[in-house]
Amino acid sequence: DQQVKQNSPSLSVQEGRISILNCDYTNSMFDYFLWYKKYPAEGPTFLISISSIKDKNEDGRFTVFLNKSAKHLSLHIVPSQPGDSAVYFCAASKDTDKLIFGTGTRLQVFP
Amino acid sequence: KAGVTQTPRYLIKTRGQQVTLSCSPISGHRSVSWYQQTPGQGLQFLFEYFSETQRNKGNFPGRFSGRQFSNSRSEMNVSTLELGDSALYLCASSVGQGVRGYTFGSGTRLTVV
After folding, report:
1. Average pLDDT, chain B
2. 3-state DSSP call for residue A18?
3. Which end of chain B is less crowded, N or C, counting CB atoms within 10 A of the terminal residue's CB?
């Protein structure tokens, strides 16, 4: 049972435009959500997180939105840069327990 | 400061053998968690250690075990290796228990032949 889903395996965006990565979850007990960026043969790098008491969190070019009623979160990257090309994972946690990861979305930013 | 160090980076083992992977956390971090990444199952939680005690365990068979030493370094062991154990094994460390402030290492790529 995949509790965290990223339905788009890949996304291609032009440099300077907005990248929107989506994530859905099924467990309403999740209270902490994170986004990670990952390059091949490297560990995930933390990007941004959001607690379930908020609906938005911003950090520079990265903004995460949480819609609890829809059990949906999204990551917006504005403006997108070629260096953003990587695989992005969303992850969820209950009581800051273990992370449940989505399957990842490969983002390619082209010039 | 130094990041999370995992050794070795690459490993090739034969079915039926056992393997031990090592993770040195960031200085001052007392929690170490292990994850397995495979193409089919994605990233899955194996276990978490905090102050030398296993705090949490994922849904993996008993062939997967771990431990943590007094200096917070952790090892995980897989016995009787199977082809399906081929994966990237990642560890993450944090100051306290749980996922807040996780920093991941670069992982150990295990190939079972």
Report:
1. 95
2. coil
3. N
Residue A82, phi then psi, degrees to nearest 5: -55, -35
- For chain B, the residues whose C-beta falls within 8 A of a C-beta of chain A are 4, 33, 35, 42-45, 48, 56, 58, 88, 90, 92, 97-100, 102-107, 109
Q: Label the pairing between strands B5-7 and A105-110.
A: unpaired
How high is the pLDDT of residue B1? 65
Residues above pLDDT 90, as percent of chain B: 89
Q: Which of A89, A96, A101 is nearest residue B98 as measured by Cβ atoms?
A: A96
Within 13 A of B4's CA, how many CA atoms are on the CB side? 32
Check if the beta carbon of residue B3 is closer than 8 Å to that of residue A46. no
Of the candidates A41, A43, A96, the beta carbon closest to that of B99 is on A96
Beta carbons within 10 angstroms of residue B2's beta carbon = 8
Among B102, B103, B108, B111, most A C-beta atoms within 10 A, so best to mutate, is B102
Q: Which of B99, B88, B19 is nearest to B55 (CA)?
A: B99
Average pLDDT, chain A: 95
Looking at the complex, does the CB of residue A40 fall below 8 Å from at least one CB of chain B?
Answer: no
